[in-house]
């Protein structure tokens, strides 16, 4: 797939999560009406109604250019990696299909980093912190292992 915009949102997954993805799409379109959205489609099912209603760019796992990659990621949690290889945006924010966007946070998106997580910090990570909180490697990633 060719790049169609410098920045966009990506959400989606398999058929069973499309009912949740529709709420996610509605929230993204409401709060960020000008941000393009790609919808990851993992499986053989119709999403034309979502294309029409939300103006999404379908990104079908079945259409990956590499047969090896299609086989590796199809019907697995690895499908969400597809936009990194063949997505329509130079930079994107992945929004899980069960998430709701509650406002335009695009001003907080950084394009000078490879990976950024948005969460409600609730004070558990203080500005200038140098130690990794114990919950981070469990729920997200282990920065110590990544630095090796």
Describe what this molecule looks like in 3D:
The model has no long low-confidence stretch (mean pLDDT 87). 29% of the residues lie in helices and 16% in strands. The protein is α/β, with parallel strands linked by helices and 148 residues long. The protein contains six helices and four strands; from the N terminus they run E-H-E-H-E-H-H-E-H-H. The chain has a domain of 97 residues: Spore Coat Polysaccharide Biosynthesis Protein SpsA, Chain A (Alpha-Beta Complex), CATH 3.90.550.10. It is globular.
What structural keywords apply?
alpha/beta; 6 helices; Spore Coat Polysaccharide Biosynthesis Protein SpsA, Chain A; 148 residues; four-stranded parallel sheet
What's the structural blueprint in terms of helices and strands?
Blueprint (H helix, E strand, L loop, with lengths): L4 E9 L4 H14 L5 E5 L6 H7 L2 E4 L6 H7 L8 H5 L2 E6 L40 H5 L3 H5 L1
Parallel strand pairs: 1-2, 1-4, 2-3
- First-to-last CA distance: 33 Å
| CATH class division of the domain at 5-101 | Alpha Beta
Fourth-level CATH superfamily of the domain at 5-101: Spore Coat Polysaccharide Biosynthesis Protein SpsA, Chain A
Using the coordinates shown, work out and report the CATH topology of the domain at 5-101: Spore Coat Polysaccharide Biosynthesis Protein SpsA, Chain A
Silhouette? globular
How would you spell out the order of helices and strands?
EHEHEHHEHH
Query: What would you report as the Rg, rounded to the nearest angstrom?
Result: 16 Å
Q: Poorly predicted ranges (pLDDT <50, ≥5 residues)?
A: none
Percentage of residues in helical conformation: 25-40%
Sketch the major β-sheet: 4 strands, parallel
Strand proportion: 15-25%
Number of strands: 4
- Helix- and strand-based class? alpha/beta
* Strand order in space, largest sheet: 3-2-1-4
Number of continuous helical runs: 6
For the residues shown, what is the average pLDDT?
87
